Amino acid sequence: MCFSFACIAAAPSVHAAGSEPLSLSETIRLAGGQSRQLAAQDAAVAAAREMSVSAGQLPDPVLRLGVDNLPVTGPDSYSLTNDFMTMRRIGVMQEFPREEKRRLRSERSEREAEREGASRQATLANVQRDAALAWLDRYYAEQMRSVLERLGEDTQALIGAAEAAYRGGRGSQTDILAARATFVGLEDRRSLLERQLRTAKIALARWIGADAERSLAGQPDIESLQFNLANLDEHLLHHPQIEALAKQVALADTDVRLARAAKKADWSLEVAYQQRGPSFSNMVSIGVSIPLQIAPGERQDRDLAAKIALAEQARAQFEDATGTLSAVLEARRNEGDTRMQALQLTADTARVWAQLNFLLPLRETQGAGDSGRESAK
Prior knowledge:
Helices cover 63% and strands 9% of the residues. By secondary structure, the protein is α+β, with helices and mostly antiparallel strands. It has a single domain, classed as Outer membrane efflux proteins (OEP), CATH 1.20.1600. The chain has a four-stranded antiparallel sheet with strand order 1-2-3-4, with no helix packed on it. Strand 3 and strand 4 form a beta hairpin. The two termini are 64 Å apart.
């Protein structure tokens, strides 16, 4: 039963000699720099930025080459020069999307980049939060390990004292059994704490890799954090999740405007040079192409209705998330007020007991003095 709690403090550590202790602020910084999810979102933002430039450009022109009216029968079959209708043709066709469409397509890519950027901020906040919680879990587990080590040493001393008192006839076996039961309880807590500490290290390594094996720095100065519950409502719309949903609403609204612009057909221009035989004159052809929207109620109107519905969905999600976050904030504010009241009550109670502990000995001393004076009389 004489298990030494010193082995808890002597847990193996692979942290290299001379390396700096891992602070909470460094953990947050490392987590943001090593997250592959953030790297993926950086790539998504860069891709959307590039698309915003190309989306606003005219399509590439189309080169057209061909032979028109080539005879396949008769004495001039397969001749490119004998028949007056045979022409070798080279031309260029250029599509001209409307300026509004090109502008909206570019704007849509910009909105998409902003949405990805806002999503990245939300992911960064989540990563830093989870890394900080993992650091704190490990820190407090290690602090509890130190407490259990001291309690184990005290309990071992208590067991030795109880055994010595029993051998000297001043104690009982009940005292020894009670001390050993306390030691067993501490050993159970030690085993549970070791599992919690391993879990905390694994969670920390999830965010910062091998740096999780470094020893931890001291307790962070949490008191210096500027955190005012009363002013949080003003910053509600700047919450990363809310900002990401707001960017999604802006993207959906741009899709609606783009669907409206799509109801106006684009047009194409084609210019061709046609070469005939030496005995005939050459020709130039110019043509314009315009799509005919023969069933807008089944195509363009349906597309517009779909984009409007998606915009309403995005707006509803934004409003729901804002309301939920506001309710959570109010609940946390009330919880904070309740806890502050409880702390104040505890402080007041402790102050009263301190005054009583001071006054009672004073009254006893005064009573003893009065009794002495009465005896002298």
